[in-house]
Amino acid sequence: MAFKYHCLVLALCIITEALGQTCPVTTSWSQISGRLKHVSVGVSGVWGVNSNDNIYYRGDSYGEEESNTCAAWVQTEGALKQLDVGKNVVWGVNGGDNIYYREGISATNPTGADWVQVSGALKHVSVSQNGHVWGVNGHDQVYHRIGASNCNQGGDSWSEIGGRLKQISVGNSGVWGVNSGDNIYYRVGTYGDLPSDPDGTSWQLVSGALKYISSADMVYGVNVHDWIYYRVGVTPDTPTGSRWEQIGGRAKQVESLSCLVWVVNTNDMIYKKKTD
């Protein structure tokens, strides 16, 4: 994939610190150069894969947000169809559903050192900022990586969790997923991405219908029409929130961290925005 790099100057928004999860108002979308079929953002920066499964890191994005310099997409070795970004680690799966994580990521070496293969087969994998890992396989079976953390990036073994999901996400808002019918589920007992990394106790059905979901400080998702939503009212006391609120734009996939949101649309065009 050929990228034409140019510097995008973003309008600065006034961020008002408030209690709890509050990012209700969104700024306008800013288009980012390049084409990706999947994008992810975490403390390790912004990463993505294109239609050829080439892997890219957004230069100067380590620490969640890219700098004001003219950052470029940097291709890294390997080939993945989907990836997810954590703190000093990136997990991903390739076209054969083989599972890998990127070791050696740091502020001084943001693209890391090597891809390490992990046993098993998954079509989609998710890692939290605490290094906790969940995934789903080609039969929509759900798995939790036991022992995975920022101190033990690869974890120890896979534990199958009951239920069927086509896509899953683990983050500060807990473990969320969607099934083949676009039904939405939250894993009870996982809110807060606890250090104990619990399996949770059951799947709780949440109102609405989404084809893709992202759990971080907020929960975002997109539906079959590519409309974008976030979940209002997600707190420790009400971990499933109260309702879905639509925001402007269209996307086939969405990821967020804090109040930063990245999406790709059906044409693999990349956009981002901040909320304030």
From TrEMBL:
Q: Which UniProt keywords apply?
A: Lectin, Signal
Q: Which Pfam families match?
A: Hyd_WA, Tectonin
- Keyword Nucleus, does the record have it? no
Q: Which domain of life is it from?
A: Eukaryota
Extent of the signal sequence: 1-20
Q: Supply the InterPro entries for this chain.
A: Beta-propeller_rpt_TECPR, Tectonin_beta-prop
Q: Which SMART domains match?
A: TECPR (SM00706)
Quote one Gene Ontology molecular function term: carbohydrate binding
The record's comment on protein family reads: Belongs to the tectonin family.
Tell me what this protein is called: Repellent
Please report the organism this UniProt entry assigns to the protein. Solaster dawsoni (Morning sun star)
Q: Which gene encodes it?
A: sd-1
